[in-house]
Design brief:
Shape: globular
Helix content: 10-25%
Number of strands: 15
Distance between the termini: 17 Å
Mean pLDDT: 97
Strand order of the largest sheet: 2-1-15
Structural class: alpha/beta
CATH topology: L-arginine/glycine Amidinotransferase, Chain A
Radius of gyration: 17 Å
Largest sheet: 3 strands, mixed
CATH class: Alpha Beta
Bound molecules: glycine
Number of helices: 5
Strand content: 15-25%
């Protein structure tokens, strides 16, 4: 197991089958694979600029959603939890991600009947908010609690409505600041945080990828971006206009860990 504390980003090349991706809240649109891959490579470049070593897994033509590695594992300092994705088509994605993570963390697994996508897991310090969504069920949340409580984490279930994942609705942009779309997630359990609302014209703008010193954020949401900058947050822009057609966002495309 690799003990040195490097900043690691696990990514996976976009599948040639991405046009057959799972969709829950978006109409199916043609996806230009080359353009999506160029955007994905630029996203990896943003990670490298922030000091992360990218470990890129190979694309798999049989796994349309496999670039969205965030859903396949949740990485803590103490353990990596391999999920059991809510979409049955995505369960084949776990083997390669587990194999990559094995070098860095002890692994634990979510078992049936639990289902959970990493996109439903928002960790802020020792608090782990988990979306109760179409992908994530109470059985998996209970398993997360059992795995994480001995490490000092508190698990909090959050009802999600109108979007795919909890992190479609709310993400951390600083230690005490969350970016939120209140139409998709309740605010009661986030009372101890300062909240930045998405601009009303940008309802899908709540997904930012927080790194140690900046956030990676979609260029397609300039009004919400301005709100982040007003709060003193350093923003690295990325164009994910093709990738979002697969109902994905900036957190979905990597597993980030390190100091
Ligand atoms: N297309 C992303 C997902 O539904 O998992």
């Amino acid at each position: 197991m690799i003990k040195v504390e490097l900043r690691i980003a696990i990514t996976r090349e976009i599948s040639p089958a991405i046009e057959r991706c799972e969709l829950a809240h978006l109409p199916r649109q043609p996806i230009d694979l080359d353009r999506a891959r160029r955007q994905h490579h630029a996203y990896e470049q943003r990670l490298k600029e922030a000091g992360y070593s990218c470990v890129r897994l190979a694309a798999d033509v049989t796994m349309p959603d496999s670039a969205f590695v965030e859903d396949i594992a949740v990485v803590f300092d103490e353990v990596a939890i391999i999920t059991r994705p809510g979409a049955a088509s995505r369960r084949v994605e776990t083997a390669a991600v587990a194999e990559a993570l094995r070098a860095y963390r002890p692994l634990q697994y979510i078992d049936p009947p639990g289902t959970i996508d990493g996109g439903d897991v928002l960790t802020v310090g020792r608090r782990v908010f988990i979306g109760e969504s179409a992908r994530t069920n109470p059985a998996a949340i209970a398993q997360m609690q059992s795995i994480l409580a001995p490490h000092g984490y508190t698990v909090i279930g959050v009802a999600v409505r109108g979007c795919l994942h909890l992190k479609s609705a709310v993400t951390a942009v600083a230690g005490n600041i969350l970016l939120i779309n209140r139409d998709w997630a309740p605010t009661e359990c986030f009372r101890s945080f300062a909240l930045v609302d998405v601009d009303p014209a940008e309802p899908a703008g709540a997904n930012a990828l927080r790194l140690h010193d900046r956030v990676i954020y979609p260029a397609m949401f300039p009004r919400t971006r301005a709100r982040l900058v007003d709060r003193g947050i350093q923003v690295a822009d990325v164009d994910v206009s093709e990738i979002v057609k697969a109902e994905a966002a900036v957190t979905c495309c990597s597993l980030i860990f390190g100091p």
